[in-house]
Write a structure and sequence with these properties.
The complex is a heterodimer of chains A (284) and B (296). Chain A has 284 residues and is mostly helical. In chain A, 70% of the residues lie in helices and 0% in strands. Chain A is globular, with a radius of gyration of 24 Å. By secondary structure, chain B is mainly alpha-helical. Chain B starts with a helix and ends with a helix.
């Protein structure tokens, strides 16, 4: 009897704790959303705001007209879409080669593809900066596209998916005279769809959120991608001056438009997120 | 002779495979292997983009050893990093154990989903949200303080809070992700173990202590390794959340490299520090790999 009472107490306390924690995630987000829809004046009121009192799009008007956020937003769409597409193509091609039976130089090539996992981008920013400058890619969106366009992690993940495909399928195709390209595009790629979905999603998120490459390689405002543009908007310069800063509603609106694509992706593709995280953890 | 033609034949037959691997190899050579070696070379130079690059031996390294800024960044990295490594390994472990006790499936899923969300957002978003939450005008934290009759604090301009804020916000962002790693490991535990324990009369607490926790140890090692790497690579959060007032407390090594190298253009000096951090990272990785292998 007593143990069941104790158990009940624990369950209640446990649920309360988890609800509190979930609220520390949800309330800031609701607050951001609410403030983004207030009027300029209301956005400075010193009250907890989970709903705007007078809903208004003033903040978004500021965002698109005065701040001209559309340009960096579209730049971000460009680098994310192109970068993710190329990433998926290159990494699945490489992953496919790794599951092929022996060919000259295979062992060496596998090693060459694996080692870069131990070279974190952050630790070679200085020489990469010099390289990008020498290649003439400085201050171009292509510099952002190309950084991270291939990763060992995605290659190995695709290899794992390809390994699960039965050999018999491709043997019958080869007898029918199918070449390497046909086997790859017609048999392997379609059967590795979950793998493709996983690397697409992860690459999409990391490209959408990229910061460091933009900090390093972009100098002119019209090339800025979303995160860099948002930083100067969102992170207020309250310490220096408030004269030309934008109101809170526009700042929070910036956060909202940067989050929306990610939330949509998360809602529609949640199972791949969880799957990818687990594979990643096992891999390490 | 015959053998050579045979090898050549095999190479020719595999030509399409080489072609498929070519983009990946090119990328790694241009953006990983070459810069790694080039970085070491640059670290020995008085590097400039125009004019001659003078070879100066270990001068850049020597200079780093004698610069207070470097040691301050080193200290900040160790202090903030260590707290991050420990907190983002053990708090999520506790969360996973607690979430695991939640009976209702739907509840469990919702809290999991919500906890994971901040991991999706960039550091600009997370930093922006928290700077706003902590701000003295209309920031949520100060509104709450106001409600209890306390004075507003401008948290982001107080050196005393700076590191704690960095560590706390990092925990807020990463905890859900790590919790899911642990939950995945818990889901993989053989249910017969729990059944046997239940037959032996072990309660929920004992089951967590004697079955779940030991089974989580290998995941814990992975998480610790991931966290250590993350601590040494830390840049984005600081770039977003720093300001001149709190900078001395939170500028970490990677930020120092960026600032010296690409803001002040002391390229050789910054390259030397990158090489030092890189070597440190490799050593730590090798040690922990060894540790992991011995224990599993």
């Amino acid at each position: 009897m007593q143990t069941s009472a104790a158990r009940k107490t624990f369950a209640v306390l446990n649920n309360l704790l988890l609800i509190t924690l979930a609220l520390t995630m949800v309330i800031p987000l609701l607050n951001v959303l609410a403030v983004s829809f207030t009027t300029d004046l209301e956005s400075y009121e010193n009250v907890i705001k989970l709903f705007p009192r007078q809903p208004s799009v003033e903040g978004y008007v500021t965002l698109f007209q005065r701040v001209a956020i559309l340009r960096p937003f579209m730049n971000n769409v460009f680098v994310t879409v192109v970068g993710t597409f190329l990433h998926v193509v290159f990494c699945s091609m490489a992953g496919y080669v790794l599951v092929r039976e022996k060919f000259p130089g295979k062992v060496l090539l596998v090693i060459l593809v694996t080692i870069p996992m131990m070279i974190p981008f952050e630790m070679i920013i200085i020489p990469v900066y010099v390289t990008v400058k020498r290649l003439g890619l400085m201050d171009t969106l292509w510099a952002i596209v190309v950084i991270g366009v291939v990763s060992t992690f995605s290659i190995l993940l695709m290899r794992n998916y390809f390994q699960g495909i039965p050999r018999s399928l491709e043997e019958s195709a080869t007898i029918d005279g199918a070449g390497e390209f046909t086997v790859f595009f017609r048999i392997y790629l379609p059967l590795a769809k979950p793998g493709l979905a996983t690397i697409t999603i992860f690459q999409f998120v990391s490209k959408w959120n990229h910061i460091l490459p933009a900090v390093l390689f972009l100098n002119s405002a019209e090339k800025y991608t979303l995160q860099v543009a948002l930083k100067s908007l969102v992170i207020s310069q309250e310490l220096t001056s408030t004269t030309q800063s934008v109101a809170n509603n526009a700042r929070m609106g910036g956060i909202v438009i940067a989050i929306i694509p990610l939330i949509l992706l998360y809602v529609f593709a949640q199972k791949y997120f969880i799957k990818g995280i687990m594979i990643g953890a096992v891999k390490e | 002779m015959n053998r050579r033609t045979k090898t050549l034949q095999r190479i020719f037959r595999a030509r399409i495979l080489y072609l498929l691997l070519l983009p990946a190899l090119l990328y790694f050579f241009i953006f990983a292997y070459f810069p790694t070696i080039d970085g070491v070379r640059i670290s020995f130079l008085d590097f400039r983009f125009i004019g001659e690059n003078r070879f100066i031996g270990f001068e850049n390294y020597r200079q780093a050893m004698h610069t207070a800024g470097f040691w301050q960044a080193f200290k900040n990295t160790v202090v903030i990093g260590l707290c991050n490594v420990i907190l983002t390994a053990f708090v999520p472990m506790l969360l996973a154990l607690l979430l695991n006790e939640v009976r209702r499936k739907a509840w469990k899923r919702i809290s999991q989903t919500v906890l994971y969300m901040p991991h999706l957002f960039s550091w600009v978003i997370v930093g922006g949200i928290w700077i706003f939450m902590l701000s003295p005008n209309a920031g949520l934290v100060n509104v709450i303080r106001d409600f209890f009759g306390l004075e507003s604090i401008y948290f982001m301009s107080k050196e005393a809070y700076a590191r704690a804020i960095m560590i706390g916000v990092n925990l807020w962002k990463q905890a859900g992700f790590v919790t899911i790693l642990y939950l995945a490991a818990i889901a993989g535990i053989n249910p017969e173990l729990y059944l046997a324990a239940m037959i032996d009369g072990a309660g929920g607490f004992k089951r967590a202590l004697y079955i779940t926790l030991p089974e989580l140890m290998s995941t814990l090692r992975v998480v610790l390794l991931l966290n250590i790497m993350g601590a040494l690579r830390m840049f984005n959060q600081i770039w977003v959340m720093r300001n001149e007032v709190i900078a001395p407390k939170i500028d970490v090594l990677m930020y120092y490299v960026y600032e010296r190298g690409l803001v002040q253009f002391k390229i050789g000096y910054a390259a030397a520090i990158s090489v030092l951090i890189f070597v440190l990272t490799l050593v730590i990785t090798l040690i922990s790999n060894r540790f992991i292998k011995y224990r599993v």
